[in-house]
Structures are given as C-alpha cells and as structure tokens.
Amino acid sequence: MTLTIEVSGLQVRYGEAVALHDLSVRLPGGRIYGLLGRNGSGKTSLLSTLAGFRKPSAGAVVIDGQPVFENPQITRRVCLIQEGGGVGDDTDTVKDAVQVAQRLRPGWDAQYAATLIDLFELPLRKRIGELSRGQRSAFAATVGLASRAAVSMFDEAHLGMDASTRQAFQDELLRDFIARPRTIIISTHLVEEQSPLFERVLILREGRLLLHEDLDELRAQGVSLTGPAATVDDVVAGLTVLNQQQLGPTKSVMVYGALDDARRAAAEAAGLELGPVAVQDLFIHLTEPTGAAR
Ligand SMILES: Nc1ncnc2c1ncn2[C@@H]1O[C@H](COP(=O)(O)OP(=O)(O)OP(=O)(O)O)[C@@H](O)[C@H]1O
C-alpha cells in the first residue's frame, strides 16, 4: 500500500538557526521523488523529520493521516537510509546485521536481501566496521531496498559507491519500485546521473521549497540552440543564458524559459538545432543564492 505524506507549515530549528521555514507540501504515494538542493539547503533536516527522527519545531508531518513523531505505527513503515551507511553496529558482521534488520523491519524480504548482497558482492563474514565506505553504503542500500518500507528514503545513500555500484543500485531501485510501487524519496547531488529515476522533483533553496513539479515540467523550462554563432546569438538575445559552448563557427547555447512562437519560428527558419537542457544546468540556475541566508 502506498502512503501519502502531508507536510504543513514545517519549521526545523537548531537553536537560533532555522533550517526549514514554513514548508508545506503534499506527496502522494507510489512515486519516486528527487529531493535536490545545494549544501545546507535543508534536505537532511526534511528527511529526518519525515522519518520521525526529529520533532518539528513548528508545523506538522503527517503520513497516512497520522503524525509521524513518536508514532511507531507509522515509523515502522518508514525507512531512512542516511549518508555514509549508519546501518548496523560496527562490531556486527554483515550476516548478523542482516538478521537484526530482519527483526526490526516488518516488510523485510530475506530472499531479496540475499540477492542484493550477492549483487553488491558484500562479504557476509566481515564486520560492518571493516567494510570500505562504498561497501558500507551498498549494505545500507541493501537494507533500504529489502525493507520494502511504504516510505523509503535515501539521503545521499550512494556516497562512496563506485560508478558500477551506483548504476546497479539505481537499476535495482527502479526495478523493485516498478514491481512494488511505494513512496521513494532520493536526496542527491548527482543531479544529472540520478534524475532519470525521478517522476517528481522537489528543490529546496535556503530552507524553503522553491519548486515541486514533474521532472518533465522542469525539463520543459530550458532549451538548447545550436548552429552558426551569430545566428544563435541573434535568436537568444535578451534571454537568460544558462551555459554556452563554441566549437569553431558553431555555438551551442542553453537558455532558461520556453521559446515564444516568434523565436521558435526564427530558430527553425535559420536551421538551428533545438534540444533539451541538462537538468543539472536548470538546477544550478534555479538555486543560485539569493544572499538572504548570509
Ligand atoms: N545539528 C545541527 N546544528 C546546527 N545547525 C545544523 C545542524 N544540522 C544542520 N544544521 C544547519 O541546518 C541547515 C540545513 O542543513 P541540512 O543538513 O538539512 O542541509 P542539506 O541540504 O542536507 O545539506 P548537504 O547537502 O550539505 O548535506 C544548514 O544551515 C546547517 O548548517
């Protein structure tokens, strides 16, 4: 069953410092959300509050109609994997840690956990404290996936994983999500690499929700134009340029905002090639600091 998350007027403070300001958002279940934001924008604060690890300083986090904090009925259906692993006791072997996870997590699928341990080539007899950083993350990812929690959250869970392991994790996450839809939230700085997973994207900036929309809507906010430099410059004059590259006489420019009909017609008449913009370029543009946080 998929669970809806409702966040209303959420504030998270650390003493005087406000990490999240009056954040409200509704996240229907059965989707993969990407949670993006620059360093310090509030992603971990939000995820740890959604998981019930942290009490809201003000406002509410409600899952399936019930407050999350100190509510085991809900928190047992939520799993947050934090960066750097943090799953299992350092002195336990991987095998012991799997058994602990099995006892603690109601939706645990032991067979699936064994498949993932094989996939990530994790040494069952080694202690958690003896694993490399990437192996630790792979073990945490194993716990996050095999828990099959109705709300599964991964906060920079890929840290230290090599490229092949990250790819295997991404493929596995998508495969398992399709077979068993649930709410998955992935916080990451690997915007371009991981965005193909996302159906919807949340962007935090300086503790506020800047944007919450479908990945396709976000993608539609940018366009790239390629062709003879002078013609490209003419067509994009007055638009917000995100990025540009020139190779000999050919220039490629990424702009923010959809092209109006007149510009599109001019671009097509001049034979310019139109294409999509990298999500990462849109993200960098949208999250430029306002200066308010300093
Ligand atoms: N334990 C803490 N005590 C004081 N301030 C904190 C604490 N944890 C986080 N903060 C502050 O809260 C804000 C949000 O931090 P948070 O860790 O939620 O951001 P983040 O988006 O996850 O960052 P990153 O991408 O760097 O992991 C930052 O300004 C940070 O300095």
From TrEMBL:
The keyword Plastid does not apply. Keywords: ATP-binding, Nucleotide-binding. The keyword Ion transport does not apply. Pfam families: ABC_tran (PF00005). Gene3D superfamilies: P-loop containing nucleotide triphosphate hydrolases. It comes from the Bacteria. One of its GO terms (molecular function) is ATP binding. InterPro entries: AAA+_ATPase, ABC_transporter-like_ATP-bd, P-loop_NTPase. Residues 5-231 form the ABC transporter domain. This is ABC transporter ATP-binding protein. It comes from Pilimelia columellifera subsp. columellifera.
